[in-house]
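Exercise 4. Each item below gives a protein and its sequence. For each, produce the structure-token representation.

Item: Trafficking protein particle complex subunit 11 (Nyssomyia neivai).
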Amino acid sequence: MDCSVLPPELTATPQPLIGFCGLDTAKNPVHKSIWDAFNSNRKNDRLQLQFKLIPPNYEFPVSKPKRQSYEWYHPKGILKRNWILKHLHILPAVVITFHSIELSDPTWSEKQLQCTSAVQSLRNSLQGRLSRLAIVLIQSGMSGRATGDELVTTERISSLASACDVSPKMIFVLNHSDHLMGHILRLESAFLDVAQSYYTQIIKQVKLHRDQLSANHQVLKIRHQFKLGFMSEMLHDFTTALKYYTQAYVILEDIRVVDTNCTEIKTVAGFLSYKRSRLMFKMNVPRDAITQFNAHIELYKGKAGSRELLFEHYGWLCVQFSSFGDLFCDAIKGGLPALQTQHPGIYYFRAAEFTAKRNEAYINCSKCTTVQQVDKNTGNILYSDFFGVRGNKTGEMVNEQNILNLLYANEKDFNHSGAIISYLGQAMAQYKIYKCLRFRKKLAVNMAEEYLKSGDHAKALTLFSLMLSDYRTDKWYKIFTEVLMKTFLSAYYSASVPDYVSCSIEAMSPRILTTHTERIAILENLWRVFQGVIPTSIQQPPTVDVTQAWEHALDKFTEPVIVDLDKISDLFACDVSFAENQALFDENIAIELHIKSLAEVPLKIRGISVVLNSPKLSVKLKAKKILQFKPNSTEGEEVKEPELMVIPETSYRAVFSVDPRQFTENDKLTIGRVELQIGTAKRFAVLLKSTTLNQQQVFKDKLSSYEASRANNTSCYIVPSYQMAAQVNLSDEPMLMNEFYRVVVNLLNNFDSCLENVGLSVTVPIHLRNKVFLTTDITEPRKTLYSTIQIDIGDKALQSSTSLVYYVISLVRGNIELTQKMWYQITSLTSTEGEPLGFTGEKFVPFDTESPTHQKTQEREGGVNNNNIKIEYGDDCVRKTKEDTIMIPCQDEIQLTATYYTLNRKVLFKAYQDEDFILRIQMEVKATCGIDILDVTLLTGDNIKARDSVKYPKICGKALKCGTRLEDSRIISVQNKKDDLAIIMRYMNINHPSLVNPTKDEPFKSAIPAPKENVSQVVAPVIKSIYGKTTETRVQDKDVANETGCEALGVYVVRWRRTNSTAVNESKFSISGLEVIEPKLNIYCFILEKVYVRVPFELRIQVKNPGSKILSLQATLDNSDSFMFSGHRQLNVSIFSYATHDLIFILYPLKSGWQSIPQLFLKYLTGGSDGAKEEITQSELNLYVQRWMPKRVFVHPPHRVAE
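Answer:
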């Protein structure tokens, strides 16, 4: 039928037709290569041309005589059926005749006569046609032409053109032996120009005829507008072609539609709409294409025509939507973007809808219309010379009843389901591309329904099964119920026992919106299947084929049907838990399962099983006892029947028991799944439930508090046994830093057999490496420190004990964590298979592949050990390792604070070379137990001189308690030598993080004040850690000790021991240095230790020149009321380089008590030369005097002479 399909010539892309004559492709290889070059590999980069090989006796269409007037002409139709086909494939725009004539051929005259005869023959065949004629002379290129032959060539071409009555421009020369493809491309361009001139002439001719039409010739106007649009497409003038097609469509709208012309009008309208949409997409105006198509459908969708042919109208609508969808797809492939709201899938879906309506209309029309059997060979009466017009081409009268009978016969043979499925498949592909997944599911259901209607039940079942999981996840139970029942029906007709059983079981769920009667019928059929009887059909009696298929399927129904309750709707509520979350290796493990049916009908269960998973084994357990709890009852009745009838609103409790010895110690047992068996002994189904266990709220409100707490035990840990006990004995007193702390470990064998390869290891954690050390021997020759120690004991007899001793020394305070491992080896007590005597349970789990719970448990629990015991199994032995953590508190033994002072008791931040200054060390005992300080030593380099202060003796003492404070003072001077103190310190264990910042500057006194809090610090600490970070201190003065990164002054070593202990320990402290400046002058002052009134004493001032130049100085003592002078008060001295000079002044004290010493003034003498540069400034001299000269001296009263 014309209205239900678009002719292929309409959907083809119009291309100019070029005809080739004179090419013998079968025998002449040169002609074959030329034809292949023109016709093969027509890619998009080449010109849009169509080539036709014309045989020698080809008959061109005969031109009809032209009418002088159309006044009395009444056409029989709008569009002729053969007109498009004629211009696309039959009548060429240009006819090219090929001749193998060399322009330099000596027999040119004879060749010219042959060519002229052939051209004349073609012209006679094309008489009355406007097709162009052209000649191509094939040149071999082998015969070379001499210079000057161009004139001869031109003359011969002109002579040939004159003889053939063609223009010289229509004669082309083709050299096939040199760059053939280049010549072909140039010829194609020339042929296209000639063809365009032909189509332009055709357009002029059609316009001339159109202008002769009057207002009464609407049909002819449409025909001529269509021809103009088609010829414009040939010229690739798409804008003009769209204009002509649109004008034709507008004229067609004015024609009144009745039953007699309805088919023709809709057919032509469909052709014009297709052409317009195609051109609009090509011109990149998709919105206009969609708009005009919607308007086209809106205009003609109500013009159905005759009621008897309503299905034909729906077929026409289907073709409109499907063809527009094809155009939309082609446009998208060309780069047009689409949206979710506007894409080709929408139109394919509408095409499927109208195809379904077409089928429905055909069925309804067949019931209301009397149709007779006809001979299908008379199908030509449906087609005439015009599109959409029915009748015999010979013009004979045709009975309308025969046409109706033939239309119904053709519609009956039409595969409606195949067309619907094809359109739905195309729509699904588009909806998937544009992420409309929900509508795609609907299309899949529609496709499955169509498969079911067409009788392809297997494909319907496959599609319905795929959609079940999606709609089940979405929880649209109304839609899901419909899909489930259709899946159930497909499973019945395809005799698929697994799908039929699973759908029947899921239909029992209260989520499925079916009646109680339907559930009973489904359940009865399910038991018929279990008993090997063919189920009855709910809708209609089964056919013979279905019955035979069921008989064959039931004979093969020997394997159990696996139904995963986690994937279907709720049917059973299951709560399962272990009695305890831990179990000993020699005690049975109890498991309780609470189960309740959510279905409205009773279900018979043959067996209840629970699968336990461990990292290496899965075991299936059968219920030992089943208790039934009726509604509103707390006491259960034991069920003793082999088959359990699960009644709605009734709860059941199943009790399981398992021997843990069939597993391995240190395993974590989990409940993999619950298995419920339904059916008979021969044919049954197994219901699996794993991931949805313990998720229903059915039982939680009715459980007691004890049962509720026990219901959370979803796993059970098999506690491993360890036959060796270890007791770590630590002293009552805490461990002190820098002390070899003694640890005693007692190992006891509690096992009734010998333990082999017993060992112990202690390891320092990584974060305490190089801060905490271990050793087993502290005697001086063998004392070696380790981070890990291992003690191998060997075999240990039963009920025996062993004591081990090792020592710990820490350089940091805090809780010291040590990792202690013990291990031993015993002979395995189990068999080779790892099963104890009396093994019960099934190691082989038949449905493990259906439930991934075991694999997930292994992945989740693999490598996790919740106990500190590790068990390794060998061939005939078991090795057990226990890991414990030992916590040893460690505290400071002593705390030091050191500060630098000048001899004038001022805080010192910078020192001069060869200057004496004081290092004041304050020590506080922090140990809670009594300690004895045996000795202290200050280790310095060769460039540092240190001597003890007479006033402050070295620190020592016995039984010093916590809080006791001691003080040490050293006089230090830095020489000009370098030392290797850093190298010495590198090999010493120096660490002590217990630092206290010194207090605010106070008068230098022997009593050490208590540390003050929140006091502004002006002195930086001079004790730093070798292994840790230097303590940072807030300071007020920038010139602080060690701020410039000075090297360490030395190491302060304190030797001590616990009171009443003989083990001697050493604590080493690094003393930070301070900046040392090389002075230009050194001053040393010497005074008697005791000075008396009216007793002269000598004030000796030693001046040292550390430089390489001579210093000339003038020294003067100022007047004083407390002293008289004897001798000179002013001296001029010259000090050579690196030499010293003593200035001696005799003073006579006049008063007792603290008296100010006369002030010394130094002046640099330049030697009398005016331009001499001063080696030392006066301010520097004043600074040195102020720094190193004493300010006061204590004068004692005079001695009393005994009477």
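Check: DSSP finds 24 helices and 50 strands in the chain.
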